[in-house]
Amino acid sequence: MTDLTCHALRHTCLHNLVKAGIPLSTVAEIAGHLKVDGTPNIDMTLRYIKPGKEEKANAMEAISWD
């Protein structure tokens, strides 16, 4: 796998933390995404945790009208 980089692993780790239900503010702090005032920078963290196709499909299934 040639696309495996430290940065890709970082994205995967942060993404998996969110999938595990860890609050975004905690994930931001773990990632070191902080504003100048020391509060979590959620906007920066959101760049790392974009959902994949399967997650989007599962989200839509959650409101399916079967």
Automatic annotation (TrEMBL):
Gene3D superfamilies for the chain: Intergrase catalytic core
Keyword Transport carried by entry: no
Signal peptide bounds: none
One Pfam assignment: Phage_integrase
Gene Ontology terms, MF aspect: DNA binding
One biological process term in Gene Ontology: DNA integration
UniProt keyword annotation of Membrane present: no
Keyword set, alphabetical order: DNA recombination
Tyr recombinase domain span: 3-39
Protein name: Phage integrase family protein
Record organism: Seinonella peptonophila
